[in-house]
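Hi R.,

Here's the input for the zinc ion complex you asked about:
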Amino acid sequence: MINHQSPSIPLLVRIKPGALDRVGIYFARAGIRGIGLFVSSGLPASILERVRRSCEANGVRLVYTVEPKDASLESATDLFASLPAGCEALAGLGGGKALDLAKFVAVLANRPYYAIPTSLSNDGFCSPQASLTVKGRRKSLGARIPTGIVVDTEACLAAPLPLWWSGVGDLVSKITAIHDWRLAFHADGTPFNDFAALLSDATVFQFIANPDRDPEGIRTLATALMLNGVAMEICGNSRPASGSEHLVSHALDSFSAHPRLHGLQVGVATYIVSLLQGQGTENIAALFEKTGFWDAFANDPLPRSEWLEAFRRAPTIKQDFHTILSTRDVLPEVEALLATDSKLKTVFV
Ligand SMILES: [Zn+2]
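And here is the predicted structure with zinc ion in place:
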């Protein structure tokens, strides 16, 4: 369905070194005096301390600080119910669960939400969805795009290397996602949004032009992942950010004995899907070479049998979602690629 509602975009975007020390200024300028803060478990204490100090120095109270144990709908409703008075906005600090929960509780509480990711492992920090489990099953629930995005590029640069590779993998998936979207438009009339596709495409190629793991490369990656979230908001669905490569990753998450980081799985699936689609492979391969992406699997190769099973299950994961996987039985091709492609051969066992 075409989204006829006007999209919302973040009102505040700060992507720069030392942004963590200025969080309090950003809240104070927006007239926010009390914050409910959701913090990732395992986050270095110094990061929370910097946010705390910055808020204190600017007269912003941390009314509520929580370190969520899981990212379930049940936890979200509990946290919403226990939200104290005075939380004028919610913020998620760190990554993954904490950000998804804060984003969703902000919808329940009808409060502005600020995303403060400290790594860039996927595009979730700025997407209009929250990935939560509902009765034990992972679901993508409707949420709102953040009111504010604060990315400290120095902090992200200090995050472990696999998280960076994961961000690269999730970003590059837009190449195959957009192609799947076009296929769906021609196959069954799925509405295609030119502007959202263009935005998504442009961000990937901007990053490909400067994929270094340095402050500038981190800024470009953060901007690109953020604009992908905005692209989803503009068209009202996840098509500009997620195609068949994401279905494969979702399938793996549902049964793999050892699921990897979202963007690592998605990145490998993107490379394979690009070969099935017959487009994009050259750019993807060059980017993976430059960023050392394949090294993520050097000591921990991927099981061929699980990935074949994931490709088998992928087309059944989402109803009415046409992709390259809907066009033919791709299993024999995937099997051959895993055995013969010069890169895939080295990362699969
Ligand atoms: Zn993704």
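One thing worth noting: The chain has a mean pLDDT of 95.

Cheers,
M.
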